[in-house]
Amino acid sequence: MVIGSPDAVALNPPCGSTLVANTTLTGSISCATLIGYNVGAPGITINCKSATITGSGTGTGIFDNGFPNVVIKGCTVKNFYYGIGVVFTKNVTLSRNKAYNNLYCGFVVGAMNDSLVTRNYATGSRSGFFVNDTDNTVISFNVATASVSPVGGPSNSGDGFDIYGINNQVLSNLATVNSGDGFALALHSSTVLGNVATANGKAGLSLGNSATTTMFHNMATKNLQDGFILTSSSNDVLIDNGATSNTVNGFHFSNAKSNNIIQNTASKNGLDGFHFESNSTSNQVIDNRSYLNTRYRCYDGTGVTGLVLNFYVLNNGTPVGPAFSFPPGLFPA
């Protein structure tokens, strides 16, 4: 059924409807159809007013395939394969929606540019927010929790946020108690500001295959692997981030080159405060603080002198070796 044509019911549409006009749900609905609701026209608003759309474990709760200038707000979507899906479009707003126990993703976004994803909540999926090939988009004030990676699932399953694209802003989101990474990011020319990753099963914030991205004033705490990890990334800036009480390293750099690491703090982590692998070269590490970490305040596997400038080291709890450790034999005692 097409909802919005002159002979159609405007409110409380049945499952499987294609919506072509502004639509407000009047109550919750359970769907056996593959799609709960299809977006069928540009420029419309779907306002669920907190009503719940419940699926049967397959399909997508609300799906927009290519229609721009759409607003989806106030919807609770649960028990589908994907909660809310938006692809190949622009100028879309996803606001104040909730996705519960959708099998694969709470929110899946692909090639959705110039858009806003704000104040949404996802729990109980393999990935809370999966944002791929998406540019010029703001992702702010969202919560991803209890994403679960099944045995043998893909490497990115269990992440709170998977975000890939150019010139995006990732602002003030929370990832907590996900079985994978809190944030798994592959970003270029983007800003990652004010996010919190806590008690996730892997890293708090992972930035990989990225360049010219700024990570500012984020916090990673009590994650079961590293607080922050940069992998195969260059010309990024990390400034005023905090990593505390993570099981492995506070900040871990693997094949990360020509980055600026400034005024960050690592404390009470289970291995090193700052850990640079031997392939992480030409980084500038300035005015950072590292204290009460179990092993090294800063481990420099590169063996390059002059890497670290004005590094504050404060009373490591159980210091092993010097404040800065190089591979054995590179420098005389």
Keywords:
333 residues; mainly beta; Pectate Lyase C-like; 15-stranded parallel beta sheet; elongated; disordered C terminus
Task: Summarize the structure in words.
This protein is an all-beta fold and 333 residues long. The chain has a single domain, classed as 3 Solenoid (Pectate Lyase C-like). Helices cover 0% and strands 44% of the residues.
Helices and strands, with pairings:
Layout: E1 2-3, E2 17-19, E3 23-24, E4 29-30, E5 35-39, E6 45-47, E7 52-54, E8 60-65, E9 71-73, E10 76-78, E11 82-90, E12 93-95, E13 98-100, E14 105-113, E15 116-118, E16 121-123, E17 127-132, E18 138-140, E19 143-145, E20 161-166, E21 169-171, E22 174-176, E23 183-188, E24 191-193, E25 196-198, E26 205-208, E27 214-216, E28 219-221, E29 228-231, E30 237-239, E31 242-244, E32 251-254, E33 260-262, E34 265-267, E35 274-276, E36 284-286, E37 289-291, E38 298-300, E39 308-309, E40 312-313, E41 324-325
Parallel strand pairs: 1-2, 2-5, 3-6, 4-7, 5-8, 6-9, 7-10, 8-11, 9-12, 10-13, 11-14, 12-15, 13-16, 14-17, 15-18, 16-19, 17-20, 18-21, 19-22, 20-23, 21-24, 22-25, 23-26, 24-27, 25-28, 26-29, 27-30, 28-31, 29-32, 30-33, 31-34, 32-35, 33-36, 34-37, 35-38, 36-39, 37-40, 38-41
Can I get a quick summary?
By secondary structure, this protein is mainly beta. Helix content is 0%, strand content 44%.
